[in-house]
Amino acid sequence: MTASMGSSWTSSLISALADELILDRDPRTADWVLPGNRAFLLSLFVAYVYVVKVRGPHFMKDRKPFDGIKPVVIVYNACMVVLNAYFMSAFLSRTYMSGGYSLFCQGIDYEARDEVTMSLLNLCWWYMLVRIADFLDTLFFVLRKKDSHVSFLHVAHHILVVFNGCYGVGYGPDGQASLTIILNCFVHIIMYTYYFLSLLGPAVQKHLWWKRYLTQVQLVQFCIIFVHMMVPMFYNCGYPRPHIYIMLCEAVFFFTMFMRFTSRPTGRGTADQPRRAIAAGARCTECVSLVDCATSAGTIPVSCSLLYT
Q: Which residues form a coiled coil (predicted)?
């Protein structure tokens, strides 16, 4: 009798956990290409890490930096500003502005197939491709022999953002996560605008005083995402629990890692590079991944601040 009760309790617990953590594919996107495709995701991530951490640096080992691709990087940054601005506007119009979304708590209706909802899902699919295109950031670093900028945080950020896109479109990208996507677009607009302008030379760089606020913008983003995702934890609006757990964990992870980099002493690790450059009288004319040199009179770096990309 006792053994039977114990077995029944265990089965009930496993069943409850399965219901809590395991989702079925979103029927609205079940036949779409790429979303929810584990083999594609795994292959993409393995290839990305291999190219930027192994094969790429090995290929560039005895070669000079491909600084000639700077115009390509400028065009790439400009395109990313335009794309993120478009997606931010499009997401807003299909959710909180004209889509009837609740800013407080918005669930997912997996049976909804109206024109606005399907347009939103289609938009999420294209946005996923844009985030995959972000991998070019890292490739540009490798080709210009800036391997120190291909940090764990940089690589993890790109991988997790793409994972979110593929997972979201496969298992439900709308609902509460819409605000996260909009915030992500907004931050990318600011960051890519800064990257674009910083590559235009000293005459433009001296006007980028507002870069000191970039770190605060990103920290605020993580805090908003965390608080916003906590709402459906305690208020049932039909938003899937697995989505909540993933977003909360990522918000904590990025906030913690970002704070770790911003609080790192300038005499250690990556942050030490600008110090050595200053000592050598080097010029800093463009932004880099986690370290950005502030310039005085547009040429000689006089201070450094940690940035997250």
A: none
